Amino acid sequence: MRAHHIKVFAHQVLVTKLKTKSVVYLLLIFNLLLFVSLYTEFRVRTQDHHHVEQYSKEVRQRWENNPDKHPHRMAHYGYLVFRQKYPLGFFDPGIHHFLGNVIFLEAHQQNTINSSEASYSSGLLRFGYFSASMLLQVLVPLLIFFWGFNLVSQDRENGTLKIVFTQGADWRGVLWGKTLGLYLLAMLVFVPALIFSLLLVWFHEASLVNSQLMSRFGLLFVTYGLYFFLMAILAVYVSGRSKSSRGALITLLGIWLFFSLILPKLATTYGQAKYPAPSKIAFDIKVEEELLKLGDSHNPDDPHYQHLKDSVLAVHKVNSTDQLPFNYQGFVMKEGEKLSSKAYNKRYEKLLQIYQKQNNMLRLAGIVNPMVAIKQVSMALAGSGYATYDDFRAQAEKYRYSLAQKMNDLQIKLISNVRGKRIQGKPDILDKSHWAQFPDFNYRFLSFSQSLAQEYLSLLVLLGWMLGLGLLVHYSKSLKVI
């Protein structure tokens, strides 16, 4: 019997709302905004992808067309790599626009990722980037609250609830039925946007559609669907608890402001204050201090390199580095690259731990704010969160280290110890054919499971909210009819 009541109330909410012109206009406006933002961001992502391919090809051609030269000069000539956006990044740009896109790789130096879109934009970007995810995460809940604030309170005010209860309905049937109707109304905004997103990828870049991408689409549907259901439950429950529609509206607006503006800002500010990250200058100083502890390759009297030299001479039973069967300077550079990378990685791991603690403060805020939880999951699925960005940095650093050590190996094996000695008629230089032997940079996106590895808490938060609000509705026997 209760299932019948739920179906009747859901149908009544859906039909009544769709007969209202303002609701229909809002549905059309929101769908139009979502389509425009999705298509615009998709075009931007597609253009960026083409630019990355074009510039990467140019960088590779210039690298291979370098003339004959000393391998260490090639190591400092360096390599440019470009950050690619995941195919689903247009659905939720996340932090794409605020982080760098290009990094210059060279020996002995770990450079930052530069050329973020935000750096070329006006100060208005600090107010947020207009995107489909912003509409779905922030504005659609406001729309749900606007549609649902009087679903129960108005029936109480005009006496309809008394009639409903005399016909055998109970509070659970009323709340669940109206929640379901409100949820289906909200899905008229989300489902077309998700289908449109899938069609954009399917018809423009069908080669990208695989099991990984479809898994992300599927979980996006589930998580956003769960999120909107939570908001619908919250709107209907507050309407049922409030004495008047006006009071319900004020309460829901306060909840929306707390969820969307106040709590995220407080959590971010508190995390940065509790776990302050060092500045770029301070970080570089720490790396240099760490490197000096390990060994300074530019200091001929450094204990580490003096011991290294003595050991090498002893092993080869010679008195001078000129008598070694390989290029000793290249050997020192290889050791220096190893130590500088070790020092950098050690300090960066500590920096990364600070960032993770800051992000964890925001994730913990999701326990009392489902808007934070859905944002974290959405960015992870769209490949636009910090984990994706740091993975690109890690892959680029691995490539940089491999490039530097490859050039050092070429110097060790093919450059004479005797300075100025001619090799193949040229002094201390190698044929340019060696440059083409080094592989190009090939970035690999995080897998589906890797992307979600740090967001299981956010998924559990959404499920916890669902369970908590469901229990509130289930035990709502004491709500007043009048």
TrEMBL record:
Classification via InterPro entries: DUF3526
Record's keyword annotation contains Nucleotidyltransferase: no
Domain of life the protein comes from: Bacteria
Keyword vocabulary terms for this entry: Membrane, Transmembrane, Transmembrane helix
Chain ranges passing through the membrane: 23-40, 127-149, 180-203, 215-238, 244-264, 456-475
Name of this protein: Membrane protein, putative
